[in-house]
Specification:
elongated; 4 strands; alpha+beta; four-stranded antiparallel β-sheet; 10 helices; Alpha-Beta Plaits; 288 residues
Length: 288
Amino acid sequence: MMKKIAKNYILPVIMITIGATLAAFAIEEFLVPSTILDGGITGISMILDKITPFNMSVFIIALNLPFLLIGFKQLGAWFFIRGIYGMVLFSIMLEVFGDLRSVTETELLAVVFGGIILGAGVGLVLRFGGCIDGTEIVALLISRKTSFSVGQLILCINIVIYSSAGLLFGWDRAMYSLLTYFITFKIIDVVEEGMEQAKAVMIITGDGKGIADEIYKRLGRTCTIMSGEGLVSGKKSVLYCVITRMELPMVRRITHESDESAFVTVSDISEIIGHHIKRTDKNVVSGQ
């Protein structure tokens, strides 16, 4: 019982705390001193902080609150509680770090390390069910009623924000901000999905059984073996296997060692329903 409480309630709070603190540190110690903007509501708040007498943290709470209320109706009370906690803590830490001296005044270092730390912080918050920017909620709701993805909508919103920054602070600031966004976005992906993010591998080979056996022997992954026929190459075996990104180099090595002429495709998996197959020390959990 205590283990379940710790996993479902205590751990998320701890990780959201760390994530919100990292995000605030990146913004105040790297981005703000160089007038480099984050995206979304935080970016809008940074612009308003520059052109009004009010602090950024005030705008972050005020502008995000309506989106959190929308999220409460759509995603439930637990999301609302985590979101409120993450945003309030984020705003408080912005004030705390705002009084400290910036880490660097070199713009390129601010872009790279600010983007990495910001991405790590936001990724932790998102991974454990929190939220520090309402843009994601807006994009999620719009995507449900349109053909646009959440990522495409967020990019469009941020382009408008960065264009405004270009007009107000100079186009070099807009370009630095856009570069920071791409770094942040990639780090968020790695942190939120983890190094265990699933990959689907399809291998077309003449030695299907041999490769499947080696993958199972070295990685503990089972393969689905299907029959195929190439227009020129004739009959082939088609292997389908779900692995993690950390295991991908080993699968490449196994395939190359067994059949240098094998044709391999790798694709990302956004969701897995059912068991993610892997052999344990005791036995095989299930099979594909």
